Amino acid sequence: MLEILLKDQAAIARMRTGLFGPRLDAVAATLVDAGYARQTARTHLFLIARFGRWLTRRGVPLSEVDEQAVATFSATQRK
Predict the structure, then answer these.
(1) For 29-73, how does the pLDDT look when each residue is reduced to its tens digit (9 = 90+)?
(2) Nearest-angstrom CA–CA distance, 62 and 47
(3) 58: how many CB neighbours lie within 10 A of its CB?
(4) Res 42: pLDDT
(5) Taking the model in full, what pTM does it have?
(6) Are 14 and 49 in contact, with CB atoms under 8 Å apart?
(7) How many Cβ atoms sit within 10 Å of the Cβ of residue 31?
């Protein structure tokens, strides 16, 4: 499903090996089914992948992700 939204095979491969990689095709399908514009769906997918890399760099397992982790990540993103 990622191939429908993304053309860069290297980017797709990186995304699939990340923390959320096993779930990204399902997320992409949900976004497409919900009628999101291609660019909006791509933006969401890249953000999810970036969040996964951020968690990995900090050694935070998925089981410990909470609202505070999301808020801290959000604060690091450009507005």
Answers:
(1) 999 999 999 999 999 999 999 999 999 999 999 999 999 999 999
(2) 16
(3) 10
(4) 97
(5) 0.90
(6) yes
(7) 20
Interatomic CA distance for residues 76 and 5, integer angstroms:
26
Of 43, 51, 40, 45, residue with least CA distance to 1: 45
Residue indicated by tokens 């919900």: 34
At 1, list the tokens: 């499903």
The two tokens of residue 9 are 């095979």
Q: Which band of pLDDT confidence, cut at 50, 70 and 90, is reported for residue 79?
A: low
pLDDT category at 78 given cuts 50, 70, 90 is confident
What tokens does 39 get? 């660019």
Give the whole-angstrom CA distance, residue 46 versus residue 16.
11
DSSP string, the chain: -HHHH---HHHHHHHHHSTTHHHHHHHHHHHHHTT--HHHHHHHHHHHHHHHHHHHHTT--GGG--HHHHHHHHHHS--
